[in-house]
């Protein structure tokens, strides 16, 4: 079983839709969580950190559920420019602080 | 601030050739990383350097060597390239690797090197 698992999608949604991605992690010692965005053939860029209390940045909301060991990303009012691959990243204090990336979830927003 | 820079951007090698991928960061970060990303797949850690003077193996180190030349630079060497090493290689840096330091430091990535081994 992979340490970090994501539904690969693709998720195809119309503009204005709300879409949610989940990411599960297997290491209960995981401590820090992030969502990165990767556009086609480009480098990943930080979208947002995920805090225990949940956090929101404009149309994006990230949540952490430690009991069930998953994090989620909710995108409201999807824009064409949201089309990308979204990577879940987990850092564990038993892994020398190394980041473990999920394989990504691909989102395509259509007009 | 250029952030993380990588050279070259593209490279084609023949099987058995060697080459070194260069990476530099100007953010005074302690930790640096090399990843590879195969088509349709996630990032896999090849090697990392938690701080200047140290390097450690990641998930897929076979066929690669690294050098942390100084705090700014971290190079990846392919001694004898194989077609299985065809991939996009990303370098990344982070202020500090230890979770005790907060663990939440953002990783910044370079633009990648697209390598094809024939």
Layout: helices, strands, pairs:
The complex is a heterodimer of chains A (111) and B (118).
Chain A: E1 4-6, E2 11-14, E3 19-25, E4 30-38, E5 45-50, E6 55-57, E7 60-65, E8 70-75, E9 84-92, E10 99-101, E11 105-110
Parallel strand pairs in A: 2-11
Antiparallel strand pairs in A: 1-3, 3-8, 4-5, 4-9, 6-7, 7-8, 9-10, 9-11
Chain B: E1 4-7, E2 10-13, E3 19-25, E4 31-37, E5 43-49, E6 56-57, E7 64-68, E8 74-78, E9 87-94, E10 108-109, E11 113-117
Parallel strand pairs in B: 2-11
Antiparallel strand pairs in B: 1-3, 3-8, 4-5, 4-9, 5-6, 7-8, 9-10, 9-11
Verbal overview:
The complex is a heterodimer of chains A (111) and B (118). Chain A is an all-beta fold. Chain A is built from no helices and eleven strands. In chain A, strands 2, 4, 5, 9, 10 and 11 form a six-stranded mixed β-sheet that branches. A five-stranded antiparallel β-sheet of chain A has the order 1-3-8-7-6, with no helix packed on it. In chain A, strand 7 (60-65) and strand 8 form a beta hairpin. The model of chain A has no long low-confidence stretch (mean pLDDT 90). Chain B is mainly β and 118 residues long. Helices cover 0% and strands 47% of the residues of chain B. Chain B has no helices and eleven strands. Chain B has strands spanning 4-7, 10-13, 19-25, 31-37, 43-49, 56-57, 64-68, 74-78, 87-94, 108-109, 113-117. In chain B, the strands form two sheets. In chain B, strands 2, 4, 5, 6, 9, 10 and 11 form a seven-stranded mixed β-sheet that branches. Chain B has a four-stranded antiparallel β-sheet with strand order 1-3-8-7, with no helix packed on it. The interface between A and B is medium-sized, with 23 and 27 residues.
């Amino acid at each position: 079983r992979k340490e970090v698992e994501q539904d690969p999608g693709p998720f195809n949604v119309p503009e204005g839709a709300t879409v949610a991605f989940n990411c599960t992690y297997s290491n209960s010692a995981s401590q820090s969580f992030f969502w990165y965005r990767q556009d086609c053939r480009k480098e990943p860029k930080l979208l947002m950190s995920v805090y225990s209390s949940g956090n929101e940045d404009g149309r994006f909301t990230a949540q952490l559920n430690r009991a069930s060991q998953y994090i989620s990303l909710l995108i409201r009012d999807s824009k064409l420019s949201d089309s990308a691959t979204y990577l879940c990243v987990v850092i564990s204090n038993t892994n020398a602080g190394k980041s473990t990336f999920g394989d990504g979830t691909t989102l395509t927003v259509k007009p | 601030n250029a952030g993380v820079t990588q050279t070259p951007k593209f490279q084609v090698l023949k099987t058995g050739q060697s080459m070194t991928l260069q990476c530099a960061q100007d953010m005074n970060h302690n930790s640096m990383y090399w990843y590879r990303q195969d088509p349709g797949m996630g990032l896999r850690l090849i090697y990392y350097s938690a701080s200047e003077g140290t390097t450690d193996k990641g998930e897929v180190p076979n066929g690669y060597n690294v050098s942390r030349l100084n705090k700014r630079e971290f190079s990846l060497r392919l001694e004898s390239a194989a077609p299985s090493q065809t991939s996009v290689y990303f370098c990344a840096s982070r202020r500090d690797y230890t979770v005790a330091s907060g663990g939440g430091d953002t990783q910044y990535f370079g633009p990648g090197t697209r390598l094809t081994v024939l």
